[in-house]
Write a structure and sequence with these properties.
Blueprint: E1 23-28, H1 35-51, E2 56-61, H2 72-85, E3 90-91, H3 95-104, H4 108-116, H5 119-125, H6 130-135, H7 138-148, H8 151-158, E4 164-166, E5 169-171, H9 187-192, H10 195-198, E6 207-210, E7 219-220, E8 224-226, H11 231-234, E9 238-243, E10 246-251
Parallel strand pairs: 1-2, 2-3, 5-6, 6-8
Antiparallel strand pairs: 1-9, 4-5, 7-8, 9-10
Helix pairs in contact: 3-4
């Protein structure tokens, strides 16, 4: 199943973009409801951060916290707590958050898409039984949704950002539209784009760090770095560490 999503990973030519002075960043790929892998990766990040000494450390989650994996509700709850404990943590809105929120708002087409892209697992993690999921039609399911998902979770997901910039890096969920300035990018591209971004070989205004497209390992290219290693299917949740001109990876 995973193989159809994979693109081969290739090392990029040597380059030395830098994050903002004094910052240490950990960009974390698509969690997709994998609460256990999330806990393991957060422990790795904490240990790595402590070993490297003092810095202004922030975590950036690249989006798609929900769907496909077994415990989206648990992952969202854990990261809501983390956001309260560590206010410097940043969260990007992925296409799966977008569809989930539209479905919660009553959009029937979004609900149909949500159910096709891992929404069943998400709803079951919020307490809907498999029997009820299989028995309900879309209208009945839409009526059940608001009671299943806590308002705090909905508000948390709805507050996610589209773009984070630090020094020579820009962090997005899916990618950017090539040759369009960063301040003119549209949310649909930042959350959904693939081919025209993935196949583009010329430099972007910043080194783009993204999730959304699964690769076997961290996918380093001359103009972008992909951090989605398919945790829900592979068990590998990854983080890209950045400080000054240095970068490194952590993986469950």
């Amino acid at each position: 199943m995973l193989s159809k999503f994979l693109r081969p990973s290739r090392p990029a030519p040597a380059a030395s973009p830098s994050v903002a002075s004094g910052e240490r960043l950990y960009a974390i790929g698509d969690v997709h409801g994998c609460r256990d892998e999330l806990e393991r990766l957060l422990a790795l990040v904490d240990a790595d951060d402590a070993a490297r000494g003092g810095a202004q450390t922030s975590l950036i989650f690249l989006g798609d916290l929900v769907d496909r994996g077994p415990d989206s509700a648990g992952a969202v709850a854990r990261l809501l707590d983390l956001a309260r404990e560590r206010p410097s943590t940043r969260f990007l809105k992925g296409n799966h958050e977008e569809v989930f929120l539209l479905a919660l708002a009553g959009d029937r087409e979004a609900l149909r898409l949500f159910c096709r892209v891992g929404g069943r697992e998400t709803l079951m993690s919020y307490g809907l039984s498999r029997q009820d999921y299989d028995a309900l039609d879309y209208d009945a399911l839409a009526e059940r949704l608001p009671a299943l998902v806590p308002v705090a979770h909905r508000d948390f997901l709805d507050g996610f950002e589209d773009l984070v910039i630090s020094g020579d890096y820009a962090f997005v969920h899916a990618g950017i539209r090539p040759e369009v300035p960063l301040d003119e990018q549209v949310a649909a591209d930042l959350r959904w784009i693939r081919g025209s971004f993935l196949d583009y070989r010329r430099p972007h205004p910043k080194m783009i760090v993204h999730g959304h497209t699964i690769t076997d390992g961290i996918d380093r290219r001359a103009n972008r770095i992909g951090v989605d290693t398919g945790a829900y299917a592979s068990g590998k949740l990854s983080a890209l560490g950045l400080e000054g001109g240095e970068s490194w990876t952590l993986q469950t």
